[in-house]
Amino acid sequence: MDRLISKLLFLAACSSTAVLALIALFIFKEGVPIMAKSGLGNFLFGSNWAPLQGQFGIFPFILGSLWITFGSLVLGVPLGVSCAVYLAEFAPKKWVNVLKPAIELLAGIPSVVYGFMGVMWLAPLIRNNLGGPGLSILAASCVLAIMILPTIVGVSIDAIQAVPRNYKEGSLALGATEWQTMWRVILPAARSGILAGVILGMGRAVGETMAVIMISGNATAIPHSMLDSVRTLTANIAIEMGYAVGDHRQALFGTGVVLFFFIMILNIVALRFARAKS
Amino acid sequence: MRRNTLSVVVLVICGSLLASGPGCSRKHHNIITLAGSTAFQPFAEKLAERYQAEHKDIHINVQGGGSAVGIQSALAGNADIGMADLLELPDEAKALNSVTVARDGIAIIVNPQNQVRALSPTQTHDIFVGRITNWKDVGGNDAAVRVISREEGSGTRSSFDKLVLGADRLVSAALFQNSNGTVREAVASDPSAIGYLSIGLVNDRVKPVSYDGVTPSNENVKMGQYPLARPIFFLTKGQVAPMVRAFIDYVLSDEAQGILEEEGLIAVK
Fold first, then answer.
1. For chain A, what percentages of helix, strand and coil (3-state, to nearest 5) are there?
2. Helix, strand, or coil here: B172?
3. Which region, left, alpha or beta, applies to residue A13 given φ > 0 means left and ψ of -120 to 50 means alpha?
4. Are the C-beta atoms of A234 and A212 separated by less than 8 Å?
5. Nearest chain A residue (CA) to B187
6. How many CB atoms lie within 10 A of CB B263?
7. pLDDT band of A28, cuts 50, 70, 90
8. B169 to chain A: which residues are within 8 Å by CB?
9. What are phi and psi of A138, to 5 degrees?
10. What 3-state DSSP class applies to B37?
11. How confident is the model at residue B4 (pLDDT cuts 50, 70, 90)?
12. Backbone angles phi and psi of B149, in degrees to 5
C-alpha cells in the first residue's frame, strides 16, 4: 500500500512537470516557425510591429517589459523590505495584528481593480504634474510596486523572523545599536530569503497583464523616458490574441516564446546575483 | 488509515465520472453557432435570446473572437454563421455568401474640454498619421495631440484606417486600447486625446467632432452623408441549412432590425 501511494505521488509530481513540458512544447511549436520566417534578429530587435503588413518586431515590447519590471522593483523593494523590517522587529504587537493582514489583503484585490484605480487616479495625476500621456511606464511601475508588496513583505518577514534570536542578542550585547544590528547582522543573515521574495515579486511583475494593459497605454514605439507609454510582452499577447489569425497569431506565440526565455533569464540572473553576494 | 485513503480515491473517481456523465448526454440537436465580430456580439446575443424565446427547440450559440475569426470559422465550418464588421471582405472570404445585416458608424471623439468641434478629412488624416501634432493647428489650445487607436486586427480599426488613413501608416506614438469602452475612458480622462468608436457608444463623457462638416449620427449615416461607417456581414458557406436560413431571415426582419436600431446600430432596411 505504501509503495502504491508513493507511486501515485510520483505520478502526481510527474504530471505537473508534464503540463509544463506540454505548454512549452505547444508555445514553441506555434511560435518558432514565424521567428524563423521573419529572422530571429528581425523578430527580437526589429522596432516595427505591424502584423497585418507582415512586420513582426517585438523589441519595443521587450524594452517595455524590462522597464516596467525594473521600475516596479525600484519602487516596491525598498518599501516592501522596510515594511517587513518594521513589522518583524519594531512594530508593537497590536500594530502587527492590523498591518500584516491589511498588506496580505492587497494580494486578494483583483488586478483589474488596480488597473482601474491607475487609470482613474494615477494617470491623470502623472499627466497633470509631470506631462506625457499619463498612461506610462511610471504609472504601471507604481501600480505594480503595490501589487508585488504582499509577496515581498510576506516572504521577507518570514526570512527576518527565521534569523536565530542569539544573532541579535549577541550583537546587542557587543554594544551595537538596534539599527546597526538590523543593518549589519539581521538583514545580511536574512538576505537569501528576502531575495527569494524579490524574485517572486519580480515574477508577478513580469507576468501581470490586465492591470498593465489598462495603465501602460500600449504604444508600440520604443520608449525614451519613464513618462512614455509602452506595451509589455504579456500585454501584446493579450490585446491581440482575440483577433489574430495566421502569421499574426504565430507571432503572438513567438512573443510567448520570448517571454518564456525572458523570465528564465531574469530568474537565473537573480539567482546568480543572490549566490554571488552570500 | 489505509482504508481511508482508498475510499477517498474511489470517491474522487466516482465523483469525476458522475460530473462528466450528464454533461455529455445533454445535447441539443438544433444548434446554430455564430462566431466573430466582437462589435456585433452583444447585438447577436440579444437577437438570439429573442429568437430562442419563440423557438424553444433551437439553441443559438454566440461566440466572439473578432472579424478575422468570424471569417476563418465560417470557412472552416466551425460556425454556421461568421460575423465580420469590415469595410471590405478580404479575398479569402470571397468564397463565402455574405449578407449585410446592419451598419455601424464610427465617430471621432475628443475630450469635452477640447475646443475643437469639427475636423476636415485632411485634418483627421494628418492628425492620425502624425503630421499634425498640436491642437492649435486645427483651432484648439496649444497642447500636444494624443492619438488613441485600436489594436491591430480590430474591425473598427481596419475600417477606420482604410477610410481615414488610406495607404498611410498610423503615427508610431499612438496609444492603443483594446475595446470601444476603454477608448472612451481614455479620451474622457485625457484633455488632449483623440480617438474613435462606434457611434452607438458615444456618451456625454466624450465629445464627438463633426467630420467633413457632418455630425456623426446614425441618421446621417443612413442618409449617406456621414462617410465613416462600415457594414456588418453574416458569412455562410455553401448550402445553408433551413434553420440557419430562418435565423438570418429573422435578423433581417423588421422586428429584429428595429431592435438593432434601438440598441444603436443602423438598420439595413
1. 80, 0, 20
2. coil
3. alpha
4. yes
5. A133
6. 13
7. very high
8. 50
9. -60, -45
10. coil
11. low
12. -120, 180
Task: Give the helix, strand, coil percentages of chain B, each rounded to 5.
Answer: 45, 25, 35
Q: Phi first, then psi: what are they for B234, rounded to 5°? A: -105, 125
Tell me the H-state helices in chain B. 2-25, 41-54, 67-76, 121-129, 155-160, 180-189, 218-222, 242-252, 254-262
Return the ∠ at Cα A31 (arms to A30 and A32), rounded to 5°: 110
Beta-carbon pairs below 8 A across chains A and B: 77
pLDDT tens-digit map of B16-42: 544 444 443 344 568 999 998 888 888
d(CA B198, CA B155): 11
Q: How many Å apart are CA B159 and CA B147, to the nearest integer?
A: 17
pLDDT in tens, B207-255: 999 999 999 998 899 888 999 999 999 999 988 889 999 999 999 999 9
Distance CA B216, CA B225 (A): 9
Nearest to A227 by CA among A138, A145, A118, A122: A138
Contact list, B173 vs chain A (CB under 8 Å): 219, 221
**What percentage of chain B carries pLDDT values higher than 90?**
54
Residue A240 in grid coordinates: 491581440
Which residues in chain A (5-64) have CB-CB distances under 8 A to chain B? 5, 49-52
* Closest to B244 (Cα-Cα) out of B37, B3, B55: B55
Pick from B64, B151, B173: CB nearest A221 = B173
Nearest to A62 by CA among A204, A268, A254: A254
Of B210, B236, B223, B234, the residue nearest B266 (C-alpha):
B223
Q: Which of A143, A5, A151 is nearest to A81 (CA)?
A: A151
Interchain CB contact of B186 with A (< 8 Å)? yes
Helical (H) or strand (E) element with A117: helix A111-117
Q: Which of A61, A29, A25 is nearest to A44 (CA)?
A: A61
Q: Region B1-30: what's the mean pLDDT?
A: 50
**HSE on the CB side for A167, CA within 13 Å?**
16
